[in-house]
Amino acid sequence: MSDPPRLKQLERREVDLVLRWADGSEHVVTYEDLRFWCPCANCKPRRADDARKAALRDEISRMRNEKPKAENVGGYGIRFTFETGCNSGIWSTDRLHAIATGEPGPDSV
Questions:
Q1: Of 60, 62, 86, 92, which residue is the least packed, with the fewest Cβ within 10 Å?
Q2: For position 55, what pLDDT does the model report?
């Protein structure tokens, strides 16, 4: 994966967020995808195989699609806080870029 551009702006909308990068590019990530790619130690193993991925997707699809709170963490990442579900993950901007662009291996970010 190449070095992603610097995150310039994050706009939280009702069902998704818009990531605006310093290079002028812009990407949309749904909150369902954000939850699915949670980087925490509890969620990552739930994507280990196709059956577990499907179960996780199903669980997330039954949750209320809500706009999370977002806060900067240590200048390297963002914590998204939902009213329900996992709130343990901290998304690095590199990870957000990988998820947004569909680059292989977002778990390795």
A1: 62
A2: 97
